[in-house]
């Protein structure tokens, strides 16, 4: 089992940063091979723009991936963290008996 982290991966050229919201092995460096690509974040626009695949991000969070502070802020603005709280509060459905 790897220690999955949701973090930002820098793309773009010098002085023109843009980021991808990705899932990586937590022990690897920032630009290591990506396990899953969750979305994009562009701080250069006013206001900053982001796109996040909420369903995939929620699946990774439910499986135990830990977001960094910057990734958590973006996921919160996308509404994923609120969905995670709701999913944790509602009990899992009981298995059907045969």
Write the layout of secondary structure elements.
Blueprint: E1 4-11, E2 18-25, E3 36-42, E4 49-52, H1 54-62, E5 66-67, H2 69-77, H3 80-89
Parallel strand pairs: 1-5
Antiparallel strand pairs: 1-2, 2-3, 3-4
Helix pairs in contact: 1-3
Summarize the entry for a quick read.
The protein has helices at residues 54-62, 69-77, 80-89, and strands at residues 4-11, 18-25, 36-42, 49-52, 66-67. It is an alpha+beta fold and 98 residues long.
The largest β sheet comes out as: 5 strands, mixed
Counted up, domains total 1
Annotated CATH architecture: 2-Layer Sandwich
Number of DSSP strand runs: 5
Number of helices: 3
- Strand and helix order: EEEEHEHH
* Low-confidence parts: none
Computed CA radius of gyration, to the nearest angstrom: 15 Å
Helix content: 25-40%
Mean pLDDT: 85
Tell me what the structure shows.
The mean pLDDT is 85. Helix content is 29%, strand content 30%. The N and C termini lie far apart (33 Å). The chain is an alpha+beta fold. It has one domain (4-89): 2-Layer Sandwich (S16 Ribosomal Protein, Chain: A), CATH 3.30.1320.10. The protein is built from three helices and five strands.
Characteristic terms for this protein:
98 residues; alpha+beta; S16 Ribosomal Protein, Chain: A; 5 strands
């Amino acid at each position: 089992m790897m220690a999955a982290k949701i973090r930002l991966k820098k793309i773009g050229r010098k002085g023109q940063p843009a980021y991808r919201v990705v899932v990586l092995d937590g022990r690897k460096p920032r630009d290591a091979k990506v396990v899953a690509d969750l979305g994009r974040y562009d701080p250069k626009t006013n206001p900053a723009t982001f796109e996040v695949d909420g369903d995939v991000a929620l699946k990774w969070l439910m499986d135990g991936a830990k977001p960094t502070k910057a990734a958590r802020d973006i996921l919160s603005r996308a509404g994923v963290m609120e969905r995670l709280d709701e999913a944790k509060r509602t009990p899992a459905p009981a298995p059907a008996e045969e």
